[in-house]
Amino acid sequence: MTAPPSAPAPPDAAPLEVAPSEAAAPPDSLPAEDAYDVDAEGRDRLRGVLWMLASALGFSIMSLCVKLVSDSLPTMELVFARSAFMAVLTFTVIRRTGGKALGRDRRTLFLRGAVGATALSLFYFGIGRLPLGDAVTIQYTAPVWTALTAAVLIGERLRPVVLLGAVLSLCGVVLVSRPLILFGNAAAPLDGLGVAAVAGASVLSGLAYTFVRKLRQTDQPMTIIFYLSWIGMVGSAPFALGGWPMPTGWQWPLLLAIGLATHVGQVGLTKGMQLLEAGTASAIGYVQVVLAFVWGVVFLGDSLDLLSVGGAALVVSSVFLVVVLGRPRRAA
């Protein structure tokens, strides 16, 4: 039996062997401790679902707060504030748990941090120019780009279903963005620069997740997040030379909420992925797209239209194909 991609077995791992008496035991003769293990597995699965729901809620609130404050504070100031908050928080956790802040595979850690920080900056820029639900929908194509870049960079098998998912994802983005060249005046197009920024962010996020897939063999999640945070902080700091306004009043709690919601999202994602298989975890993550549309309607006065809803459905379907149906199968 080969290990699934989300948990690769070490090269020197011994094959799993089952004693004849254990293999021959009928299901109704399981000892009490095995029944307890089944219950424990169910509890772990429930915990994983709750962590993934918390992650979707955290990231959706982070996006809402960025949208609310983006009209009054520059994009790179938001990136700096979030990155500084996360850098201090993750470094504190690493020190208390005895982890390694510098990590092992420093080259890949740096690449993941640089690509991820660039994606974050583009997403924050685009979210200020687009309706919240549409921006999150376009960003959510990232898992498709992860599958494509992983095939090119780390040799993961590219299945036909992944290519189908990429086509569906692109069609979904076209429905959401409604370019004039295809729709003419039949539908109001989204801001082209905003769409380009978020689309670029989704591609770079997919590349960053590919680096994360490689780093799981060498480095801990908190170290990976720490690199993303300090690189984002250092990379955005020079933009302060142009002059950043000092946050005032309600902007301070929004900046704090961005940092806290991001932390909840990151921790929930990390713990949820540890307790659930990748397909289940990613499927639960679809809630983030739904929440983004809800927050947009409730807090921002965004209106829903059939093209956006249809585009979101296509993107969700594409991610389902890539993550669930496109995963490698275990050997019998």
From TrEMBL:
Residues 1-34 are annotated as: Disordered. It comes from the Bacteria. InterPro entries: EamA_dom, EmrE-like. The chain crosses the membrane at residues 49-70, 76-97, 109-130, 136-154, 161-181, 193-212, 224-244, 250-269, 281-300, 306-326. It is found in: Membrane. The keyword Transmembrane applies. Residues 47-177, 193-323 form the EamA domain. It is a multi-pass membrane protein. The keyword Lipoprotein does not apply. Keywords: Membrane, Transmembrane, Transmembrane helix. This is DMT family transporter.
